[in-house]
Structure to design on (207 residues):
């Protein structure tokens, strides 16, 4: 974990939040999918994996969600988000840990959201560890939203190798316990004017 943690601490210590390639002022697609998956229940439990310093938590709070957990390996990223939220940070649960090693409560979450973490898991062991945590911590009937680089996305990001997926190969990583509800693509425009191809999969956890 130390090498991964050091890498991401360095990223957030040396680059402004709005200059990293994955930055966008608003995660509109993620918000839309979360809103649909919540069925209007503002007390549903949401976890954002690899939250970084994104504005997703700001929008979730603004929308009225009351049970939000942010998880990231970078202490610096979490600190920046808390500083931005000020008093509202107390309304959110915060976890600083590696998603392949973290211990999460059983059947705790209704919605699992991950934009751009899973594609960094290049070893089969890490992917199995990730999926086992999703399966254990998301309630039956809950939803899992995972976005990765698509087939036309970059082969590296932030100096690290990634694995690119289409919707079928991404869903195959999760297995039969996860029923694919829908998938879609997004062309993300980076702060420096290039375009990255993302694939989003929304799954429902079967009981």
């Amino acid at each position: 974990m130390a090498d991964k943690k050091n890498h991401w601490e360095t990223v957030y210590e040396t680059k402004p939040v709005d200059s990293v390639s994955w930055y966008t002022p608003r995660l509109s697609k993620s918000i839309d999918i979360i809103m649909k998956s919540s069925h209007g229940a503002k007390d549903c439990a949401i976890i954002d994996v690899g939250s970084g310093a994104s504005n997703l938590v700001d929008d979730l709070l603004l929308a009225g969600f009351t049970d939000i957990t942010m998880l990231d390996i970078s202490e610096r990223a979490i600190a920046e988000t808390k500083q931005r939220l000020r008093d509202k940070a107390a309304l959110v649960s915060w976890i600083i840990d590696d998603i392949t090693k973290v211990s999460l409560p059983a059947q705790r979450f209704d919605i699992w959201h991950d934009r751009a973490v899973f594609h960094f898991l290049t070893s089969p062991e890490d992917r199995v560890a990730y999926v086992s945590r999703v399966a254990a911590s998301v309630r039956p009937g809950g939803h899992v939203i995972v976005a990765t680089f698509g087939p036309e996305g970059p082969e590296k990001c932030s100096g690290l190798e990634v694995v690119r997926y289409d919707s079928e190969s991404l869903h195959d990583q999760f297995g039969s316990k996860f029923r694919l509800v829908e998938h879609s693509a997004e062309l993300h425009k980076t702060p420096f004017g290039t375009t990255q191809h993302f694939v989003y999969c929304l799954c429902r956890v079967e009981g």
The beta strands are 45-49, 67-72, 92-96, 109-115, 138-149, 156-157, 160-161, 178-189, 195-205. The mean pLDDT is 96. Residues 2-205 form a domain with the Rossmann fold fold (CATH 3.40.50.150). DSSP finds six helices and nine strands in the chain.
